Amino acid sequence: MPDFTSSIEDYWQLRLGNCREALEANNFEVFEARDAAEAREIVFETILPVTGARTISWGDSETLYATGLLQALKAHPDLEVLETFDTEAPRDEIIERRRQALLVDLFITGTNALTETGKLVNLDMMGNRVAAIAFGPKNVVILVGRNKTVLDEEEGRHRIMNYAAPVNARRCGKNTPCAEEGYCTDCDSPERICNTWVITEKSFPKGRIKVVLINEELGV
């Protein structure tokens, strides 16, 4: 009898392979990784040298943090990493840094959902993360755990509104109805984190957005 764990891995490998084909048809450059460690290696050893990036920033992403990539980039002597989550910096300065992050060579983040038709579905509070995905940085890397895959945009929206957003609201200590109830109420809370939807159907120019598919449960 086949090993149950290996059967699960094979199943996800098949699904991620299908996602890869759909993404590549939509002009994304796609890489596949067995786990978070290999994803870090792909970005550091393959993507980074090809882009020639010297300035880097990122959008809030538990998947990114799980790879350990951010620490490796910050330790690299030839890279300038723009810190946009400095808890000791004044709020106005953080906002300005996030504006400057739209001009870096390479921006790294995750996605809230990835459809099997090769689209990225994202919902943002401030908009800096989705803005960078859409335009600004010369190159964008999207790190995607297998748990982010959904059938279509509708399922992606449902996943975000009734899982990712409530979890992230709690993670960030927001006093919102979804943090309390566990699902979206389309609230008017001043701390609402759901303000800007962006659906990326294709990468333009071709290959600007590079997606690393990770065969591991990562992120929210």
TrEMBL record:
Superkingdom of the organism of origin: Bacteria
Q: Which residues form a coiled coil?
A: none
Residues spanning the signal sequence: none
Domain LUD span(s) in chain numbering = 20-214
Q: Which residues cross the membrane?
A: none
What is the name of this protein?
Lactate utilization protein B/C
**Which source organism?**
candidate division TA06 bacterium DG_24
